[in-house]
């Protein structure tokens, strides 16, 4: 089947979604995704970030689809034509979805461990507005302890349900889920039981925002001060292939290896994630490749820096010199003094 997205065509298998086809093409036309996760069956269809415009349904039925479609749950048809980045309607819709997601999400990036690798931060950077029209109070939740390794910060949750889907599919007994409805909906452990399954730590990796973070790494460092290295160890529970985040010679955090869409390649166990923080525990393979535009790339430029002349500073210094002359007595001739 052939599908065309923003003028670029790709051959896909039946059953491929528009989002997957866009990822096959790659580049700017790939819609953002906050709830879809390729490694989790049945994920997607919750956040509406990935909306696209279907300008032609298929060769057999070329009528356009009247509404914007969630690309992560809409299947490709032969001859389908889709507008993503090229469509103003889509851009406007993504702006609205971003505004909607930010209605209740706190703007606490300066203290949030997810800052620098948060999908919502990236989404707002691209589609967000600098001010909000929401004047009501944001919803808040009482802090809830869900165990000694994972921190749940419900105020930041965007209810993408990736964590519950993961818990459903990866752990043998799901102990948390979405409770209540509408404005009161929240992720909870249902019976306040600790999430102690060996693979529960992966919820931290799939959470697109800072609602689920690693307690063993909390407030230790901003991610852009860490150096990520791919590493592996012999593990009898998981693949043992991880990314270790180092500060000097200290391993501060261990995560799954993520691809260009921020999705882990293989899920890892809690022993690798939380208990193996010594360099001797790991075989370090080398620096992890990260995006050119990533926040982790800050200060990493190798090219020579141009000398920057800051006019304001020059003028301030000039002004200070003039003031100094005015204040000091040094310029006053001795014969005019009272001495
Ligand atoms: S805690 Fe994170 S992963 Fe779970 S629903 Fe909320 S935002 Fe999604
Ligand atoms: S990624 Fe498609 S609806 Fe969330």
UniProtKB/TrEMBL annotation:
Q: Which domain of life is it from?
A: Bacteria
UniProt cofactor(s): [4Fe-4S] cluster; [2Fe-2S] cluster
Gene3D superfamilies on file:
3.10.20.740, 3.30.70.20
Question: Which SMART domains does its entry note?
Answer: NADH-G_4Fe-4S_3
For this UniProt record, the keywords arranged alphabetically read as follows:
4Fe-4S, Iron, Iron-sulfur, Metal-binding
InterPro entries hit by this protein? 2Fe-2S_ferredoxin-like_sf, 2Fe-2S_ferredoxin-type, NADH_UbQ_OxRdtase_75kDa_su_CS, NADH_UbQ_OxRdtase_ferredoxin, NADH_UbQ_OxRdtase_Gsu_4Fe4S-bd, Prok_molybdopt-oxidoreductase
Which protein is depicted? 2Fe-2S iron-sulfur cluster binding domain-containing protein
């Amino acid at each position: 089947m052939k599908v065309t997205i923003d003028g670029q065509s790709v051959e896909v298998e039946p059953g491929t979604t528009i989002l997957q086809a866009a990822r096959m093409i790659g580049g700017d036309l790939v819609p953002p995704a906050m709830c879809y996760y390729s490694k989790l069956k049945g994920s997607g269809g919750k956040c509406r970030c990935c909306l696209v415009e279907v300008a032609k349904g298929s060769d057999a039925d070329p009528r356009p689809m009247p509404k914007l479609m969630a690309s992560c749950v809409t299947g490709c048809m032969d001859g389908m034509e889709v507008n993503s980045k090229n469509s103003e309607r889509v851009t406007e819709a993504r702006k609205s979805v971003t505004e909607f997601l930010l209605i209740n999400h706190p703007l606490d990036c300066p203290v949030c461990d997810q800052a620098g690798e948060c999908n919502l931060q990236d989404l707002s950077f691209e589609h967000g507005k600098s001010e909000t029209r929401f004047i009501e109070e944001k919803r808040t939740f009482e802090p809830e302890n869900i165990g000694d390794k994972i921190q749940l910060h419900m105020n930041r949750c965007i209810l993408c349900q990736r964590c519950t889907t993961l818990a459903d599919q990866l752990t043998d007994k799901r102990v948390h889920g979405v409770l209540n409805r509408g404005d009161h909906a929240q992720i909870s452990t249902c019976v306040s039981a600790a999430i102690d399954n060996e693979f529960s730590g992966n919820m931290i990796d799939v959470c697109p925002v800072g609602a689920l973070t690693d307690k063993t790494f909390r407030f230790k460092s901003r991610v852009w001060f860490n150096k990520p290295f791919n590493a592996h160890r012999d593990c009898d529970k998981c693949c043992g292939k991880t990314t270790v985040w180092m500060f000097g010679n200290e391993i501060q955090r261990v995560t799954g290896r993520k691809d260009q869409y921020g999705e882990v390649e293989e899920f890892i166990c809690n022993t690798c994630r939380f208990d193996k923080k010594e360099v001797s525990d790991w075989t370090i393979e080398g620096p992890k490749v990260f995006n050119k535009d990533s926040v982790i790339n800050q200060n990493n430029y190798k090219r020579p820096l141009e000398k920057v002349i800051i006019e304001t500073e020059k003028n301030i210094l000039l002004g200070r010199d003039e003031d100094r002359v005015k204040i000091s007595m040094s310029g006053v001739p001795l014969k005019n003094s009272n001495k």
